[in-house]
C-alpha cells in the first residue's frame, strides 16, 4: 500500500514538473502553425498537402468499400443459389434488385473525405484569384533584377508569360463555374484544360531552368578555390534537388489536367500531389521556425 502511494506521488510530481514543458512545446507548435498559415502562399501549401492526401485516402477507402460490397454480393448470391431452388417452382427465376449500397461507417467516411477534398480544392482556386497580382510583382522583380545568364533570363520571362495566361484562364473558368461569368459548360471545361496546359509549360520551363543552373553551377565549382563556402553549396544543392523532385511530381499532374479525360487515377493524382505538397510544406515549416 505504501509502495503504491509512493509511486502515485512520484507520478504526480513528475506531471507537475513536466506540465510547463508540455505547455511550452504546445504553445510553440501552435504559434508555428499560426505563422505558417498567416500568408496566402503558405496557406495554399498546407491546403495542397491536405487535399491531395485526402484524395489518396479517398481512393484507397473507395477501393476497400467496393471490395467489401463485392464480397457481400457474392455471399448473398451464394446463399440464394443454395436456398432458392427449394422454394421455386419449375420454370421460375429469382431476380434480386439492390436499390442502393448499404450504408456503413466506412462508406460515410469515404463520402465525407471526398466532400472535404472537393471543398479544399475549391478554396485553393478561390485563393488564387489574386494570383495575377503576385505575377505582376514577379515580373517587376525580373525586370529590376534580371538574370545575368541569357538563357535563365529568357526562361524567367517565358515563365512570367505562361503564368499570366494560366492564371487568367483559371480565374475565368472558376468564376464562370460559379455563375459570375456567363460561360457555357464546354467553354469552362476548355478554359480549365488550357490553363493546365500553360501550367505544364511552366513546369517544363522550370525543369529547363534547373538544368541550366546545374550546368552553370558545375562550371563554377571547377573554377572556385578550396575556400568555397561548403555550407552554402550544400544548401543550394539541397534546394536544387527539392525543386527537381517537386517538378517531377507535378509534371504527371499537369498532363492529367491538360487532357479532357485525364490519364491518372485518383490514387496516382493523390500520390503525386502528396509528394509535391510534403516537399514544399517541409521547407516552409523549416523556414518559418
Task: Please give a structural write-up.
This protein is 82% helix and 0% strand. The chain has 289 residues and is mainly alpha-helical. Helix 2 (40-87) packs antiparallel against helix 8 and helix 4 (131-144) runs antiparallel to helix 5 (150-177). The longest helix is centred in the first third of the chain and has 48 residues, at 40-87. The two termini are 48 Å apart. 17% of the residues are buried. The mean pLDDT is 85.
Summarize the structure.
By secondary structure, the chain is mostly helical. It contains eight helices and no strands.
List the helices and strands and how they pair.
Layout: H1 2-36, H2 40-87, H3 105-127, H4 131-144, H5 150-177, H6 185-223, H7 230-258, H8 266-287
Helix pairs in contact: 2-3, 2-8, 4-5, 5-6, 6-7, 7-8
